[in-house]
Amino acid sequence: MNSERKRPAGPPSNRSKTFRFGIVAGRFQPLHLGHCDLIDTALRLCDRVGVMIGSCVGPQSADNPLSYSDRLCLLRQVYGDRIEVCPLPDIDIGVPD
Known about the structure:
Elements: E1 19-26, H1 33-45, E2 46-54, H2 68-79, E3 84-88
Parallel strand pairs: 1-2, 2-3
């Protein structure tokens, strides 16, 4: 019989949270409480959180009134450097509107 004790399930001992990395993707047009709930949950569960801002390269429109830099500024005002942010360009896959 093996006398070694098994570690309980959970994060490895060198990590403080359940997951190493989490990703939240959205357009953030504008940043709202639902987005914040997702990001806050990711921050609670993950060592690092990446936030991907979608629809980042097209011109401003009624559907996308805020520029990428506007949305980046909003995220930085709320989360500072606790998140990593990157653009997520739209991909046209030919699906009709």
